[in-house]
Amino acid sequence: MTPRRRSFAAAAAALPAAAALAGPHRAAAQGSASAPWPSRPIRIVVGFVAGGGTDITTRTLAPRLQEILGQPIVVENRPGAGGSLATEVVTHAAPDGYTLLMGTISALVINPVMQRLPFDVQADLTPITMAVDVLNILVVPPDRPWRSLPELIAAARAQPDTLAYGSSGVGSAGHLGGALLDRLAGIRTIHVPYRGGGQLITDILSGKVDFAVATAATTLPHIEAGKLRALAVPTARRSPLVPDLPTIAEAAGLPDYDLANWYALLGPRGLLRPIVERVNAAMGEALRDPAIVASLARHGLEAKPSTPEELTRHIREQTEKWAPVVRAAGATPN
Q1: Residue 265: predicted pLDDT
Q2: Does 189 score more than 70 pLDDT?
């Protein structure tokens, strides 16, 4: 058994023994379908360490969801494998609505392209709703000499395979952002993956990596404090949150550069439609709450509720978009 397979097996073994049996799960869920839902705490599994964008999003929403649904919302961090360990946990959970996943582009789109996983994202999960669009910012430590993106690119071009960029994990949006910059700008940099955005920011603040395309949730406080220097945003258009920052496309003359990042809520396969609709409605109410919208916006997170069908289509379209980029970059799991 490979180390990767062993890690997934260990994650599965950590679940209650009954969680490995899909049949009894489904029977139990159907048998309790007449009971009021929810009648006990709901856990939302996050595939990264505390302090990153996914964690911040989930913990911002949790108190409002608790008010709406009338049960405690427990946020559980299960970092590892670019979010795939957390996804594995949820695919083994009973489809009763008490275990949900805050999924990311890395776990739902990129990892299935990079490697063969012991589950099928599009078959073994039930889409519920989009949660947020995520603003990323290209940042460098303040002790680096580069004051603009062209200066950073020029330094990378002059010193191939020397400059290092960090990301929250292999296959994360930050990894894609660096790989796409390499590809379009014709440079070669070194990718340094971490186990989440919180760990990445710790190291870029100390200057252990040269740059990162990281979430605004983790970078904005340090940018405002002068501890990080922001050079550009990776989206097709400038962000109203940081309107003075150019896009990577305009700053570097790379018109094809456009990196979208997002999080979404899903449950296990077989999640009953009434529960899907109840959670979707609760998430929609939370994501339209002005206080929640404002709190998310301060972290560069734009509330984006959707229907389950829209999320299903989005995951499929994003997979089609990013598969050739990931393969061209030669991204492989670490």
Answers
A1: 98
A2: yes
